[in-house]
């Protein structure tokens, strides 16, 4: 049984731990070892998680499976009526259990509850990530591509996907 909890700065070590358990499984066949390490530090070093929470105002959520931390979601408000699901990850051993659907649905429910007018959710997903099909199944549509330079000669080669929430 899944449950979700809004994360606080006290949960940053849990988020870091979950990320370390999902990262190479998600990108190990897509990116070089060097880029994996560079990006992991850039996004998940404890001080960078805190910066995302405190300065960039990303709202993190931790997803539990039978009381055990098993996934996380990060939402960033980009502008009025536009939100970005920055991070959507779950432990590899529970893929196929419905946790991905749960994470998306709970993120949408949170936004509906806090933002009562129609809005758009976007996400960026690596063009070689098998999750592209899952996001399409959940109603997201490819609207563009991006080759975003992240430093050190590395790029994030993503699809930009969106879903409009009207009710």
Any overview of this molecule?
With 167 residues, this protein is an alpha+beta fold. It is 36% helix and 38% strand. It is built from five helices and seven strands, in the order E-H-H-H-E-E-E-H-E-H-E-E. It has a seven-stranded mixed β-sheet with strand order 1-2-3-4-5-7-6, with helices on both faces. Helix 2 crosses helix 3 (46-54). It is globular, with a radius of gyration of 15 Å. The mean pLDDT is 96.
Quick summary of this structure?
With 167 residues, the protein is α+β, with helices and mostly antiparallel strands.
Helical amount: 25-40%
What is the chain-wise order of helices and strands?
Answer: EHHHEEEHEHEE
The quaternary structure here is single chain
Radius of gyration: 15 Å
How far the N terminus sits from the C terminus, by CA atoms, comes to: 27 Å
Average pLDDT level: 96
**How many beta-strand segments?**
7
The 3D shape can be described as globular
Largest sheet: 7 strands, mixed
Class from secondary-structure proportions = alpha+beta
- Percent of residues in β-strands: 35-45%
What's the total helix number? 5
The poorly predicted ranges are none
Strand order of the largest sheet: 1-2-3-4-5-7-6
